[in-house]
Amino acid sequence: MGEKTGWTYITVPSKTAWQINPGKKTSYRVKGKLDELAVSKAALIPFGGGDFILPVNASMRKGLRKRAGDEVVVFLEPDDELEISADLLSCLEDEPVAKSYFTSLPLSHQRYYSRWIESAKTAITKTKRISQAISAFSQKLSYAEMMRMNKDKGR
What distance in Å separates the CA atoms of residue 15 and residue 28, rounded to the nearest whole number? Predict the structure, then answer.
């Protein structure tokens, strides 16, 4: 599908989407198989009327070896695996207010913080980022507010 957009995607009817993740109306991650091709961390995107679409990227298309209009056997389930920094999670155990705020954030925001922390090139930078994040979580600050606060401290 995707004649007007240029996208290749699989339509997931509302009834099927409800079976995968009951009550979910916003985008969410899924894993599973398209024929025999393993898929993980793929997003189901709302398409209107309760239906969703599963975008099929170039590497997925290549792995499937299918053409437009070919049938594909689809098996999907929620992909709840979080890739959150173990060091951040460990430090949050000692800060219940910060932990509560962090866990209230959307999963995409939690992953963003985690990637930011894990992208540090040195242990010193990683430690500094964890400290900044926990301080911001304790104050219920957004990422942008945290960055502004830390920039202002540097002046």
Answer: 16
Pairwise CA distance, residues 19 & 16, whole Å:
5
Sign of CA dihedral 74, 31, 101, 93: positive
Q: How many residues does the chain have?
A: 155
Instruction: Determine if the pTM surpasses 0.70.
Output: no
Domain ranges across the chain: 9-78, 86-153
pLDDT, tens digit, for every residue of 52-99? Answer: 999 988 888 889 988 777 889 999 998 876 678 889 999 999 999 999
How big is the CA angle at 11 (ends 10 and 13), to the nearest 5 degrees? 145
Q: Classify domain 9-78 by CATH architecture.
A: Beta Barrel (2.40)
Q: Give the sheet arrangement for strand 74-78, strand by strand.
A: 9-12, 51-55, 37-48, 28-34, 74-78
DSSP 54-111: EE--HHHHHHHT--TT----EEEEE-------HHHHHHHTT-HHHHHHHHHS-HHHHH
